[in-house]
Amino acid sequence: MTMAAVQLSPAAYERLKAEFDDLTTRGRIDVANKIERAREEGDLKENAGYHAAKDEQGHMEGRIRQLEHLLENAEIVEGAFIYTVVYEGDSEDDAERYLIGNMEEQVEGADVISASSPLGTVLDGAEAGATITYEAPNGALTVTVLRVEQA
């Protein structure tokens, strides 16, 4: 069974690749140095610095594995869209901006939602002016799409 591709914008792919490269070089060296310095302090059983450095190493290695998976399975996609919507009963001043994509995406002023989420499913492909009702976990919600712009 093959893994589903992880859709990422070129910007997100480059940011994740840079983070991966940094963690696998500088990050690993820094943590190894912290562990070595803590070891020099003696008794490891009661050495908080050693345990903190080992915890940091574990978290970092987990993130490295996560990044490795994302990068290996990445499908670079152009043309992500940001949807500006207003919920029924709210004023346009309360409009919210959503980018439909992978949670690793980062766009200033927009929340990222999954394409498989209830709102992501109905927004994907919607045009400005559309009024859409969807089933949210706490009941039906209606939004009006004010703008659609390329991310």
Explain this structure.
The chain has 151 residues and is of the alpha/beta class. The protein folds into 2 domains: 6-76, Orthogonal Bundle (Helix Hairpins); 81-150, Roll (Chitinase A, domain 3). 40% of the residues lie in helices and 26% in strands. It contains 3 helices and 7 strands, in the order βααββββαββ. It has helices at residues 10-39, 48-72, 118-123, and strands spanning 6-8, 74-76, 81-87, 96-100, 111-113, 131-136, 139-150. Strands 5-4-3-7-6 form a 5-stranded mixed β-sheet. It has a two-stranded parallel ribbon with strand order 1-2. β6 and β7 (139-150) form a beta hairpin. α1 packs antiparallel against α2. The longest helix has 30 residues, at 10-39. It starts with 5 loop residues before the first strand and ends with a strand. The mean pLDDT is 90.
What is the average of the pLDDT values? Answer: 90
Stated plainly, the CATH topology of the largest domain is called: Helix Hairpins
Structural class: alpha/beta
* Overall spatial form: elongated
Instruction: Return the CATH architecture of the largest domain.
Output: Orthogonal Bundle
**Alpha-carbon distance between the two ends:** 32 Å
H/E element order? EHHEEEEHEE
**CATH class assignment of the largest domain:** Mainly Alpha
Give start-end ranges of low-pLDDT stretches: none
Biggest sheet details = 5 strands, mixed
In order across it, which strands form the biggest sheet?
A: 5-4-3-7-6
Count of DSSP strands: 7
